[in-house]
Please model this.
Amino acid sequence: MPSVRVHLATPPLDDDARQGRFGYGEPCPGHPGLAGPAMGDWAGRTLDEVAAEDPEGIRHWLTDPGYAPPGGGEPVAALITRTGEYLAGLGPGRHHAVVAQAVVRAAVVAALELPAAAFWRLDVRPDTVTSLSGRAGRWNLLVGQPR
Model:
């Protein structure tokens, strides 16, 4: 069976990321299943702003993978599932995508069949590449690549 190789690149930090702002579920051109997570009412706000207004919501979001940010946000568990299903459907060959750091976390959790709680234990640096390769639903992770 032909192999699949997926290179997930994270962009360099921009001003919003430096301020810790939640994204808007940005699309991933050419790879719709790798869009960033929808953050609902939290989108565009900093973690500190949301924590000051909704400390319980932030606590739930950081500890319960099934918790969805208010206003249509996507739970971490749903992001992991969506990302994993997309990866499983990729055809043979090499695939390149520029994705949010959360998508890299979700891809690694899904590919390695880690518990959803591992999502928060993975640090993904900006301006790096994470690669997954595999066939027949078995993925390998290549770590430590500069972009």
Residues 101 and 147 are 14 Å apart (CA to CA). Strands lie at 4-9, 93-98, 128-135, 138-146. The chain has a mean pLDDT of 92.
